[in-house]
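task queued by scheduler; priority normal; single chain, no ligands, no partner chains; default sampling; output format set to structure tokens
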Amino acid sequence: MLNLLAISYELYMALSIVCLVLSVIASIFVIIIVIIQPGNSSGIGAINGQSETFYGKNKSKTLESKLRKLTVIAVIVMAVCMICFYILSLIKGI
């Protein structure tokens, strides 16, 4: 069983570097996207009970919703890379 998990040092280093670089790129991307996104506060208009606007009804097509989707995708990529990096370190430690 240990022979199946054994990988060469070159392959380990290559996969580790790829995971690390993808994680760094994804984390920088997440930081930039979060900084660009506007806040979620409705402002004083929510207290007055203002009606729904055309912008509010078509919110899924806006840039804000696209930025939220990109944020989720980038966080998932970063998490998968970190999990792969951890699994690689466990395999190499065996």
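post-processing summary
- Helices lie at 2-5, 9-36, 45-48, 54-57, 63-93.
- Residues 2 and 45 are 63 Å apart (CA to CA).
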